[in-house]
Structure formats: structure tokens, C-alpha cells
Design brief:
By secondary structure, this protein is an alpha+beta fold. 39% of the residues lie in helices and 20% in strands. It has 7 helices and 4 strands. The structure holds adenosine-3',5'-cyclic-monophosphate.
């Protein structure tokens, strides 16, 4: 186990239903600390760049349209084994496969409107955090 940081996004389906606080409660109850957070509206260009790795997938355009349909909350979470821990409490990408008690089981509407995103590796966490945050915006202690 090691102290890690991961990027979280609370997606438009969750912000539009006023679920930011409830998602944050699950995050904080898991022991993860929200060390940076901002509410922003993505543009088509920024969402496309963030999800660049999915550009060739059939769901890419719908994913980008959904992610720019309303505000999102971008966050940096810190804690022991934060990357795997956050993926565990998010639950499976497809909410029908997510375990009871996970964020996606509780709140997600579909595989696309699945309420949250979390980085999937140390390398991607670094990239995704620096995509949205400068060093001075991340307060570690
Ligand atoms: P996320 O963790 O943000 O990473 C990529 C997103 O693509 C994923 O969550 C889903 O919301 C979205 N997506 C939409 N359709 C699919 C699909 N068929 N398979 C996987 N991801 C999908």
C-alpha cells in the first residue's frame, strides 16, 4: 500500500441531480481525502482531449456530448492505495454490474451516465490530475 493521488470527475448526470454532496460523503467515508476540487463546464475540445484514448470507440461522440451537457466536479483524491480504492467504491463502469453500496450502484443511470470517473493507473492518474489542476491548486495537508 502506498499514498497515492487519483483524479475523480463527478459527471453531469450526478451534478444535475444535486448529488455532489452524497458522492463526496461516500468518498470521505472510504477514508479518501478530497485535496482539490472545482466545478467546471467542459468544452467539446477539452472533453475530447481528456477522453482521447476512446476516440476510435463507437461511444466516443455520445460520451463527449454527455460530458459537456452540464457542469462537472473535478477532484483530486488522496489516500492509501487511492487509485484502486476509488475504483472499488465507484463500482463497475456499467451500473448493472456494480456492487451494492458503490457510487455507481447507488446513483448511475446507465453505462454512459455513470455518475463518476476515476483514474485507472498511476501513470494515468498523474496525467489526468495535471490535465485539470496546477500544482498550486493541490493542497496536500
Ligand atoms: P469513464 O470511467 O469516464 O471512462 C470512459 C467512459 O465511457 C466510461 O466511464 C463510460 O461512462 C463511457 N462509456 C459509454 N459507453 C461505454 C461502453 N459501451 N463501454 C465502456 N464505456 C462506455
Amino acid at each position: 500500500m502506498s499514498e497515492q493521488q487519483t483524479l475523480s470527475i463527478i459527471k453531469p448526470d450526478a451534478t444535475s441531480r444535486n448529488l455532489t454532496g452524497q458522492v463526496n460523503t461516500i468518498i470521505e467515508k472510504s477514508g479518501l481525502k478530497i485535496i482539490a476540487q472545482k466545478r467546471i463546464k467542459l468544452t467539446e475540445e477539452i472533453a475530447g482531449k481528456f477522453y482521447e484514448v476512446h476516440r476510435d470507440k463507437p461511444f466516443f461522440q455520445d460520451l463527449v456530448s454527455f460530458m459537456i451537457s452540464g457542469p462537472v466536479i473535478v477532484q483530486v483524491l488522496q489516500g492509501n492505495n487511492a487509485i484502486a480504492l476509488y475504483r472499488k467504491i465507484m463500482g463497475a463502469t456499467n451500473p448493472v454490474e456494480a456492487e451494492v453500496g458503490t457510487i455507481r450502484k447507488e446513483f448511475a443511470l446507465s453505462i454512459e451516465a455513470n455518475s463518476v470517473h476515476g483514474s485507472d493507473s498511476i501513470e494515468n492518474a498523474k496525467k489526468e490530475i495535471s490535465f485539470f489542476f496546477s500544482e498550486t491548486e493541490i493542497i496536500k495537508n
